[in-house]
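Z., the sequence and structure:
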Amino acid sequence: MNKIGPRWEWRAFGSQFPDEEAQIRQYDITSTRESTELYIISIHSNDNTKIRDELMDIKTPLRISQDGLEKWTVVMKAGFPIHINELALVYKAWGIPIPYLDKDEYSYQEYLNKLIIENTDLRTVEVNKTRHGYLINEVIVEIADVSFNSTPLRTIAVEHADPDKVIDIINRLGLRKYENTNYIKAIKRLLNIPYDMRS
């Protein structure tokens, strides 16, 4: 896995952001990406655990700034079949004890059917994304159409390793009036699962 450093992130969800998007679209688009991802939601944790591009991906929240930004870091990206050593990190991210495992490795389908679907502490949500990336003063800004189990939403995100740069772009685009809502918080609201981010 290539090393990805921690980043400060800010994100809003809604049905539309016409004024803010108009400002963002004045800048050149740098990327457009489409993906279908399977988020695995634990009732005991707010870590971001998902499967994307046939990789088990874990991001964990590190802290919240006084300005309300959230600092996240990548913990693991692992392919399938997934090894028991990597599963130890996955269960730690879910905040649940690792069960007895009768194999050293699990295929993708075994992982889903035996370890996730049968666990009542976990929920799966299919998330489809069409993301448009922009770069504003070295800061990544994203506009995306997403759906959670076919429920459509719009989202705008701002992220960078320097929190001051993130705050500057948020203020410049007039995004401060929206709540900072990460993917796990948004999905848990949809599923009526309590969310409490620790600072």
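The chain has five helices and ten strands. The chain has one domain: 7-191.

Let me know what you think.
H.
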